[in-house]
Amino acid sequence: MPETLGWIDHMIAARQPSYLVTANLDFAAQASEDVELQRILVEAELVLCDGTPLVWASRLTGKPLRERVAGSDLVPTLAAHAEKMGYKIFLLGGEESVLMRAAENLGRLHPGLPPVRYFSPPFAPLHEFDNDKIIQAIRDAAPDILLVAFGCPKQEKWIYMHYRTLGVPCCVGVGATVDFLAGKVSRAPAWVARIGMEWVYRMLQEPNRLVGRYLKDIVFLVRQSWRESRAITSGGSLAALDRSKVPFAPPEGIEIVQWSGILAAGCAKEFPVPSLRAPFMIDLSCVTSVDSHGLGLLLRVIRRAWAANVVGCFLAPSPAVRVVVEVTRLDRILPFASDMEEARKMIAADVAAVKARPVTSELDGAVIFKLPPRIAAEIAESYGQSVRSTWETRPELREIVFDLAETKFIDSSGLGFFIRSHRMVGQRTGGRLRLINLQDNVANVIKVAKLDSVLLPRP
């Protein structure tokens, strides 16, 4: 907890928009199925373990998490810290009466805390929120800490969609913690929390809602822990090296570094990292084994690249690497290329996408928009304006086609863009929106949001 408060102090001092995640076992289980939520975890400034079963499981790996830092513990502690530091807190989500009581209780417990502002938007799906109104309320308050209580994963997806434009240095999804602050829901006694049984206490409070979920989560934990342990243990025996597809000279203008040997705890500092001054490739063909610390290094490098708006990929991963990233499903997030030609094409597409300019063509009364590799808030806004302008100025058009052949990731902003486009074309007689060449990751986000019947109708 003290380290967490120190990290939050650093985030606030830096004044860069960022967010942290409190992840419990159910969060992990959802992220294994929801590629958007997994991407949110990867890009978070800090991920805290909010689940006692995850702490227990980590002890079996030989790399134990030191302690659980629960959101329900963090928020009261953070409020006391905010009083000391003069930080401003904003509450978002939940019933207005609950937010009001939570704000009043925080003010009563911490009289030196700046007045806690709050906003309760009407309940709606993410793509139907009045985000302009929400964002304006937050920007007017200019908080240092934003606590969002829409429930998981809705709150994390909303934060991911908007944190860059909010100007808030520390955004946190807190779920039911606001109910605890307001006194609407009681927390487990301290002794129950100390022995790691708070989840049992909550299950007994809401058995109809939580029993089935917890059973599913425990099955996930056992299965996934076994699969990951087996993959990491067997990785070394699969590490046959093949340099035939990896030429020594990279394409002009692309930096290439090579990692070889054991990518594990204690070895990470030995590996060279890209300068991030140009597009890059990291050759993984000679990595003989990888563990969770090695995966952490892969994630840190690519997060730094995303933050610097530099494109890059991992080239020719050895079997030892591939078996681990596939069992953890990080192959959905991390950019891997099997050979130099695939890597070159991947980087060229990503470099072109940075410019975010729509590429269109026409065929038989339809306009085709070729969409970029990644569709998040900024892209969704700029492409949405272009699609609307094209449709409204061309009354003879009857179809808009989104070509997603190069699109590897969309978030809920992208879903909102699709839904708005679908509604717009549906208002014209015979008008329709069609998505073609879907990648698995894009289809996953659509299906998790239960929008496949709208956006992916059967022929």
Structure, explained:
This protein is α/β, with parallel strands linked by helices and 459 residues long. It has helices at residues 2-14, 25-33, 35-43, 52-60, 71-85, 96-109, 131-141, 154-166, 177-182, 190-194, 198-205, 207-234, 292-307, 319-327, 340-354, 377-392, 412-426, 440-448, 452-455, and strands at 19-23, 46-49, 89-92, 117-119, 145-148, 170-173, 255-263, 280-290, 312-315, 336-337, 359-363, 366-370, 374-375, 399-403, 409-410, 432-436. It has three domains: 2-205, no CATH class; 237-352, STAS domain (Transcription Regulator spoIIAA), CATH 3.30.750; 356-455, STAS domain (Transcription Regulator spoIIAA, 2-Layer Sandwich). The chain contains 19 helices and 16 strands. It has a six-stranded parallel beta sheet with strand order 2-1-6-5-3-4, sandwiched between helices. Strand 5, helix 8 and strand 6 form a beta-alpha-beta unit. It is globular, with a radius of gyration of 24 Å. The protein starts with a helix and ends with a helix. 39% of the residues are buried.
Note the gap between the termini: 54 Å
Global mean pLDDT: 87
Instruction: Determine the number of helices (DSSP H or I, runs of at least 4 residues).
Output: 19
Question: How many domain modules?
Answer: 3
Shape by Cα distribution: globular
Instruction: Briefly note the structural class of the backbone.
Output: alpha/beta
Uncertain runs with pLDDT below 50, 5 residues or more?
Answer: none
Beta-strand proportion: 15-25%
Radius of gyration: 24 Å
Oligomer kind = single chain
Largest sheet: 6 strands, parallel
Trace the largest sheet across and list its strands.
2-1-6-5-3-4
What's the count of strands? 16
Instruction: Kindly state the percentage of residues in helix.
Output: 40-55%
